[in-house]
Amino acid sequence: MQAYNVLAPGPVNLHPEVQKALALPMIHHRTPEFDAILKRVLTRLKVIFETDQPCFALTSTGSGGMEALLVNTLSKGDHVLGIDSGKFGERWCEMAEVFGARVTVHKVKWGEAVKVADVRRILEQNPDIKIVMCQACETSTGIKHPIQELGALIHERAQTLFLVDGITALGAFALPMDEWHIDGLVGGSQKAFMLPTGLAMISFSKKAWKAIENNPQPRFYFDIRKEQKANAKGETFFSSNVTLLRALDVVLEMIMAKGLPAHFAEIRKRAEFTRLFAQKLGLKLYAEVPSESLTAVVVPDGMDSQKLRLLLEERFGITLMGGQDQAKGKILRIGHMGHITPEQMIDVMLKLAEILKSENPGLSLPLSLEKEMRSFWNV
Ligand SMILES: Cc1ncc(COP(=O)(O)O)c(C=O)c1O
């Protein structure tokens, strides 16, 4: 089977130690060995979430985690403000509607960050808003939203909760849940947690726990009160995802050994590299406030980003993503999460240059490109 270099905004390249952990023989979840793993994982997740509150690792994709945040805090008829700046914001609004919310959708132009003043105005005009939902990074555009400022604004309102989709953010850059007054936060295993798809990590603030306790909304699989009770006994409510939790333990051990700031700095450096050299290749940045977790770049007029990504995959085994919906054919999205060496970063950029040149022989590229890239990484 061909080995791919997966620089998508999830899933991501796996670290060799994670691959080893995934290949270990099965153990039962009712064993002292697994009990120790679960305890360690749930404790260490608090470091990533930067919270004193309990953290949970649910067996589901990221969307299940988004649903868990909603079904635990939302009741039928509640007024919700959804910030829709791309595919995932749009989907979260749809989800809230399915659970009976009255959703005010605040559409933000693709590639732009939400303006805090606009959210303040909407909240002032609608004092009954119970929940505000926002992506920390909207993966379809690569934008990073002002979560700290939104948290400060929403925190002033005793009856309003701030739910954040950190699926391509949590673990890639700082999202200190307690300090930034985030009331519900979700991360996904196939993103900055550097694992295969299948776990959603979530946590709730003290303010959210009050809403959870008083919420009449029916819920079962994602009833966080039951998960919390089970976790307190050292168990999970349903069968534990032994394989992924064991691999998560390995990832968290690596991050703890490195230190969170150093881990974030590595991802930031990949983002800086991509932004710098993509622009040298004549590609413009799509997002006005680019996230550290991925970079979206606009391909030159007359080129189709979908074709470019296919050529990269077929010729070189490199996986980048194209655009979705209105950005289809127009942008390439390059992920910075997961196990990526400087050599892999350089290789992707050089191969991208090669493909761009093959599509546009008139393109002039600096001769010293590889040398400049090597000097950036010191390799
Ligand atoms: C910001 C964001 N939210 C939600 C999702 C959905 O996650 P999943 O596909 O794991 O359900 C994704 C997946 O790419 C995402 O990037």
Structure description:
There is one protein chain. This protein has two domains: 5-9 and 259-377, Aspartate Aminotransferase, domain 1; 16-257, Aspartate Aminotransferase, domain 2 (3-Layer(aba) Sandwich). The chain has helices at residues 16-22, 32-49, 62-73, 87-98, 116-125, 147-155, 206-213, 224-232, 242-258, 260-280, 305-316, 342-359, 369-377; strands at residues 5-6, 55-59, 79-84, 102-107, 129-135, 137-138, 143-144, 161-165, 184-188, 199-204, 284-285, 294-298, 318-319, 331-335. The protein is globular and about 65 Å long. Helix 1 runs antiparallel to helix 9 (242-258) and helix 12 packs antiparallel against helix 13 (369-377). The strands form four sheets. A seven-stranded mixed beta sheet has the order 2-10-9-8-5-3-4, with helices on both faces. The chain is an alpha/beta fold and 379 residues long. The chain contains 13 helices and 14 strands. It binds pyridoxal-5'-phosphate. Residues 10, 61-63, 88, 135, 139, 165, 167-168, 188, 197 line the site of pyridoxal-5'-phosphate (PLP).
> Which CATH architecture of the largest domain would you pick?
3-Layer(aba) Sandwich
Rg calculated over all Cα atoms: 21 Å
Let me know the largest β-sheet. Answer: 7 strands, mixed
Number of strands: 14
Question: What class, by secondary structure content?
Answer: alpha/beta
Number of domains: 2
Low-confidence stretches: none
N→C terminal distance: 29 Å
- Which sequence of strands runs across the widest sheet? 2-10-9-8-5-3-4
Instruction: Please report the first level of CATH classification, the CATH class of the largest domain.
Output: Alpha Beta
Number of helices: 13
CATH H-level superfamily title of the largest domain: Type I PLP-dependent aspartate aminotransferase-like (Major domain)
CATH third-level topology of the largest domain: Aspartate Aminotransferase, domain 2
Helix content: 40-55%
How confident overall, as mean pLDDT? 97
Q: Which strand-content bin applies to the residues? A: 15-25%
Order of helices and strands: EHHEHEHEHEEEHEEEHHHHEEHEEHH
Bound molecules: pyridoxal-5'-phosphate
Basic shape: globular
